[in-house]
Amino acid sequence: MMKRLLSLLFILLLPTLCAASEIRIKDLVEFDGVRGNDLVGYGLVVGLNGTGDGIRNAPFTEEIMSNILERLGVNVTGEQFRPKNVAAVLVTATLPPFGRAGGQIDVSVAAIGDAKSLLGGTLIMTPLKAADGEIYAVAQGPIIAGGASVEADAASVVQGVPTSGNIPRGARIEREIDFELNSLRAIRLALRTPDFTTANKIERAINANFGGAIAAMQDAGTVAIDVGRSRARSPAHLISQIENITIEPEQRARVVVDQRSGTIVMGENVRISRVAVSQGNLTLKVEEAPMVVQPNPFARGETVVVPRSEASIMEEAGLKMAEVSDGSSLSEVVAGLNALGVGPRDMIDILKSINAAGALHAEFIVN
Known about the structure:
It contains eight helices and 25 strands. By secondary structure, it is α+β, with helices and mostly antiparallel strands.
């Protein structure tokens, strides 16, 4: 049973690392210039059912509400606002590459005041700006929040995050990014995971496909393409041909563990040298059972709490000295670790110790 549990907790990334698995270049690189741009805006959500900002605790909500009403021709100078159905929010979105005016994009909304929930709210027209300070889109629409909140006089329950949500296709693009792809004379491919061997394979695969030296590896994370030598109709046509070429990428050996869930992820290239392992279980137990002592009836005195504690140390039968043979393949490494017959959290401690001893030949990452 224990071995079966360990086998389930070892998530083996074989499909992406096997020698027989080929990946498209478009899934390994980013093309120079073909990128999104982050947008952000500050807006107001209305229509909340008494779950909005408290104006005293969030004065910026009152300020933006006054500005909106004045732009609509409503004079609110000197008026006192105390509504509970509005909330100030930050709106974020990503302008996709080659996004055209009139197109629609998704937006995310998050409260920045003390609003309890955005359920049922509607975002009022909010300009979205990029890093250059220019407005590229305008967002508006009903919010889809992914949580729920219930509150009573003596108790409250919150499920999910009701103070954030999204609006599918909630922003309309008003300005386009100035970028002329067809004017490029060279295209650079940026590897998402820089690796010299993978970059070299991309260079050779592209040159073999076009029958000429149009690609050149510049470093572990960059491969440059000469558009002129490719004789393609345009850079766009060239990219469409390159992105579907497949290669077998290389990747560093890694072991990733999550101590909270007890999950262990191992790559195919992980190797362990021959080691001996011994592991014991030590349990510390402390119990508190305070006793209340009261004075005799009609006697002078007061009630006191007398502490009563019990502490003990128990050592359970642990793992005796066991040998883990060196593994030449991932299956042999997993079989050797499973042969120890310990739980997943003990296995994480054993892997840490093996790594400290220099017998784990992989990058060890702990989350």
